[in-house]
Every structure is written in C-alpha cells, then in structure tokens.
Write a structure and sequence with these properties.
Organism: Companilactobacillus kimchii DSM 13961 = JCM 10707
CATH topology of the largest domain: Rossmann fold
Number of helices: 15
Protein name: Phage terminase
InterPro entries: P-loop_NTPase
Strand content: 15-25%
Distance between the termini: 101 Å
CATH architecture of the largest domain: 3-Layer(aba) Sandwich
Strand order of the largest sheet: 1-11-4-10-9-5-8-7-6
Helix content: 25-40%
Number of strands: 18
CATH superfamily of the largest domain: P-loop containing nucleotide triphosphate hydrolases
Number of domains: 2
C-alpha cells in the first residue's frame, strides 16, 4: 500500500516576540475546545501556549497579544479557543469586529462548538450585538461591531480586536479602557497585514512598537515575507500559510494568483508594507518635482479651495505658470470651518487672481455668496466631470513632471500618503488619505488650482514677419 505524504505549511511564526514564561494554561483550553470534535492544528496549539502563559501569580504574561496570518488559515479559531476557556472560567469578554457579518459569524462559530461540546449556555441574537453566557460560571461574551463609542462605560476581562487591520485610533480610544478594572486583563489583536485600502493604523503601530522593543507585557507572532516576493514561489506559500495542506491546498492558491502581485503578497504571503510605499503618488515621484528656489513666475494666480467631505476643514492653495512652462503649486493654509471664511476672503481681495475654483458642497455656495458681497469675481464651482478631469490632470502633471513645488512639509506628507477612490459611474477617480489624521482637502485644493492654471495657457506674443 503506497503512502502519500501531504506537505504541510510552516507551523512556526516567521517572526515573533514572546516574553519568557514557565507556566501556561493552554492544555485545559485545548481539551475544552477538542470536546467539540474538532482538532486544533499544531500552530494553534503552539500559539495557545503563548496566549495562555501565566506568571507565578496566575496573571497573564502577555496582557496584550497580537498575531497576523494570511487569509483563510483559521486565525479566528485561536480566538474561539480562548473565548470558550474564558466562558468556562467566568470571564467577561468583548469580541469586536470591523464588519457586522464577521462578529455574527464568530458568534455562530462559538455556539456551534459549545453545542458539540455539550456545554449549556444562553444566547441572544441581535444583529451587531450578539451575546453568549454560561449560567453555571457567569462567563459572558458580547459580540459587537466596532464604533467610535462602543464599549464606553462597560467593563470586561478580555477584549478581542478581530479584523485588527481596520482598527482605528478613535475606536481604540473608546475601547482600550474597557479592561482597565479587570483583575487580570488581556487584549488580543487578530488580523491580516493591512492593504492600502485598510482604514486602521493601530495594528501597524502595535506591531512596530513590539518589534522595536518599546512595548511591555506584550507578545506578537506573524507569518510573513520580509519583502515583496515571487507570487509563484510555492515554498513561500508553505512558509507563510500554516494551514496549507489541512484547510486548503496548493490548487486553491493557484486560483488566487493574478496580475496584482502586491495584493497577493499582502493577502497570501503576509507582507507588511509601509503605507506610503503603496501611495498613489510616491515620495520619489513628488520629490522629483521639488525646486530649491522660487522659479520665475509668469502671469496671474489661480486659486483652489476645497471644503473637506467630513465638514471639518477648508484648504486653499495657489498655482502659477513659470517661465519654464511648468505650473508651480503651493498651499496657503488648511483651517477649521469653524474659523469662518474671512482668512480666505482677505487673501482673495489682495492677490492678483485670475480664477478661483471652489469644491465641496459643505461650503462652496456660502463662500461664493460672500465673494459676491465683496464684489469679487464669481468663482468656478466645478461639476463632477470637471473634478474628475482635475484629478486626472494632476496625475498627468506628476507623471510628466510639468508640476513643481517648494516641498512644503504639510503638502508633501498628504500627497505621498494617498490612495485612489472611485468617482462617478464612468471610471473616474479622486484621492483619499491613508491616515485618519491627514486631510486630503489640502492636496485637493492644490490640484484644483493646478487644473484652473493648466486650462488657461499664457498667451504667446504674436510674431509677424515681412
């Protein structure tokens, strides 16, 4: 009888930071989990040792523990192991996720395992706010979809951050204190490496802080490649996917291979990228447009004004033709809408301005009316089609190096941390910031000014020959 050996994925993290310990309660947790009829994989057992590690006082060695693993490897199964044991120990647990469907499926998974293990429980089904509790122990798990206010005023022993790549700073402000009053608190971060479209920054900061040795009482584990790699290298598939050969096969990964190598590196090989490496406008591209002294300017000023989509800030920038045929752009300011429009109006009254473009439904009509009161020239209120054109023209100007700037720090940091977003229904695009604390309206105002300036070519002197 021929025995066929099945190749299995790497069961050990490619990178980890684990605090020293001599005791762990993992065996009890694994036994409780396997009463459901399921068998924990080797990598889950090994990671459970670290997660359930306790000191001489019986307190968790890792009060915070994070792990990152490529998709479909069963990363939330470790959370289930931890939560079932927590229920049996009478812990109060808050399980949070980015999507309602994710928190609901986690609730269903725990229910199924409790049923199979013959553990009596009570449950509440309420979309986005499910609950399980054990009458015999008093243990409870609340399943919530994350918001910026969820968890305030409540106390728990264990906080689970599922889909941690989407965990934002405002959500962290609302949730991180919910375990403060516990005698033995623990927070677990579980997710995949962020993509350029991920909204959260906490997971990235947490990882960087641990790997640089700046965080106490914390542990980390990840399966990843260190740099962008060959997506067809099967050895890397096994290196970064511990459940390859058990949950899924080589053939299923073959079907995932496509033209987007960056996405495959992140989602399947666990690559962690810096946000600005995937910015729609790279640092190198923007740096090549930098001038070290003010160029010779030619003609009037064109002004771009953008009211932010969140109705918080308004930004103003200018654009001017240069003698060399380029367009010089510079930001004037970005202020809170609460400050009013006087700072804008004062600039518009004293400068030699040819055209003013104002975008943003939250304030463009009010400013246009105020400009009329001051007897200023009527501004351009661009249509969606014109805004799309302005974004395309900005991209072309960067690629063709027909834009120049003086490397203003505020504008540079916004420009080099952007991603594209869809506008309209005909394939148009705009830009958005990759960080919550960066306002894209600063760049939007610059590209509006650039659009107005580029569409108004300086008149050439006519030469007549006899």
């Amino acid at each position: 009888m021929m025995v066929i050996e099945v190749r299995l994925g790497n069961q050990n993290p490619t990178q980890s930071v684990i605090l020293p310990f001599t005791k762990s309660r993992y065996k009890t947790a694994i036994e409780a989990y396997e009463k459901s009829g399921r068998t924990a994989q080797e990598w889950q057992v090994e990671l459970a040792k670290d997660l359930f590690a306790v000191n001489d006082d019986g307190l968790w060695v890792h009060t915070k523990f994070g792990y990152s693993i490529p998709r479909r490897n069963g990363k939330t199964e470790l959370i289930v192991i931890r939560e079932i044991q927590g229920l049996l120990d009478g812990e109060q647990i808050l399980h949070t996720a980015h999507r309602t469907t994710t928190s609901h499926s986690s609730w269903e998974r725990v229910l199924k395992l409790l049923d199979n293990a013959g553990i009596k429980y009570r449950s509440l089904k309420a979309v986005g706010r499910e609950r399980i509790d054990l009458p015999d122990t008093g243990g409870r798990v609340e399943f919530r979809t994350r918001t910026s206010t969820g968890g305030l005023g409540e106390g728990f022993d264990l906080l689970v951050i599922d889909e941690a790549q989407e965990y934002t700073t405002d959500q962290e402000s609302a949730l991180k204190y919910v375990v403060t009053d516990s005698d033995n608190p623990q927070t677990i971060f579980c997710g995949t490496p962020p993509t350029p479209l991920s909204s959260g920054t906490v997971f990235v900061d947490f990882r960087n802080s641990i790997l640089s040795g700046k965080t106490e009482n914390a542990g980390w584990a990840e399966w990843s490649v260190e740099e962008q790699s060959n997506i067809r290298d099967r050895d890397l598939w096994y290196k970064t996917n511990p459940s390859l050969g058990t949950i899924f096969t080589e053939r299923s990964i073959q079907d995932e291979v496509g033209s987007d190598e960056i996405d495959f590196n992140i989602q399947r090989l666990g690559l962690w990228i810096k946000y600005n490496q995937k910015s729609a406008i790279s640092e190198n591209e923007w740096d090549e447009l930098k001038v070290y002294s003010l160029p010779i300017l030619q003609g009037p000023i064109y002004v771009g004004i953008k009211y932010g989509n969140d109705n918080a800030n308004v930004a103003m920038s200018i654009a001017v033709h240069t003698l060399s045929g380029k367009v010089f752009v510079e930001s004037i300011d970005c202020q809170s809408i609460r400050n009013g429009n006087n700072w804008i109006l004062n600039f518009l009254r004293i400068a030699d301005i040819k055209k003013v473009v104002i975008d943003g439904a939250s304030g463009q009509n009010i400013l246009a009316s105020e400009m009329k009161d001051f007897k200023l020239k009527s501004p351009i209120l661009p249509t969606v089609k014109e805004v799309i054109n302005a974004n395309s023209l900005w991209e072309q100007g960067i690629y063709q190096q027909s834009i120049c700037h003086s490397n203003q720090p505020s504008l540079t940091v916004v420009v080099t941390n952007t991603a594209k977003r869809n506008i309209g229904s005909s394939g148009g695009f705009g830009y958005k910031s990759q960080f919550d604390d960066m306002d894209i309206s600063l760049m939007d105002s610059a590209l509006l000014a650039h659009w107005a300036c580029s569409n108004d070519k300086p008149k050439k002197k006519q030469k007549i020959g006899y």
